[in-house]
Fold:
Amino acid sequence: MAQDFVGSNNLNLLIPSGQFGTRLAGGEDAASPRYIFTHLSPISRYLFPEDDDILLDYLEEDGQKIEPKFFCPIIPLLLVNGSQGIGTGWSTFIPQHEPTSILDYVRAKLDQTLNLPRIEPYTKGFQGRIERKGTGYTTYGTIKILDNITVYIDELPIGVWTNKYKSFLLKKQSKGEIVDFQEDHTTTKVSFTVKLKPGQLHRMEQSGLEQAFKLTSNLQLTNMNAFNAYGMIEKFDSAESIADAYFPTRLSLYDDRKSVLMSEMNYKSAVLKNKARFIQLVSEGKIDLIGGQMSEEKTVSQLKSFGCNTVDELKAFRNNTIIHEKLIEDDFSWSEDEVKEENQNDKSSFDYLFKMPLSSLTSNKISALMKEASETESNLNKIRDLRSEELWLSDLDKLAPYL
Structure:
């Protein structure tokens, strides 16, 4: 996930701090794990928004919560970085695709555009060309004629590594098909200068230089197998069909996010208003905390009579009870104003008020709390009016500058 050389990842989720491999050997020249380091790439949090963290279904191992059953990025990374490999009874090959065209396709579906754009194959840093051929695509390296006996190769087809291609040229040289070749590569750039026999270049041109030097590779779309949202292997016939299958799963997560955001903002607004009301009551002398003349029971009774909410009543504002239980279970905290749930006796029902510091008992604090409550309600109204599709489009807008 940290490799970023040509042919590895279009979007690397981790930063390659050290030698993670190059296109010379397709990553096999990576340093030993003890000599390399990594950390999360800045783009990762745009692909996996923090607001989704509590919505995922986390697995458990040996009594501890570990990673989610699956992550759900805002665009299908399976298409962005591609996938290939074999498993029991199955194999798969999914080419890499242009991240921007994937984003545009998702945008078009959200906008319910009739003519959806195509999702095109793409490999970051590749300087050759990609053409549609039959049931897939063909990629071409780049070869230039320098003179009547010399050609220059400065790009290889996707999936062909520099060292492997050098072995191919050595075989051609041993067979007398080429005279000699010189190398001037870097870890990112290919450079072969090939010498031929007089007249040989003309014959190769007639059959095609790219075919003569094997500067083509195929990206077939006939073996695109992947797990679907139900954990079953499904065969897809196009990049668009993968995006279509992914679309409802991601959209349903925005439905959950909207519900959670509304629930938490409702709750937060109620807590802020209760705190402001409590400070007002204390400052006006209607609740005597400083004089020490009022018992806890009477103070609690007065708070109830003035309409202050208990912890149980505040919990009712979290109308999304399923997600709230998940918040508590996974120890997620949405706000520093969150009410801690303790033993539900009368005192603890108002501990979120009693435990406020004395420095809070000021008119400035009342104004600040009421202002924050008003802003929270304003944001709540905005989110209530938003469609789930609009939340997704907002996330896509944040991601787009980084693609």
Notes: Residues 341-345 have pLDDT under 50 and may be disordered.
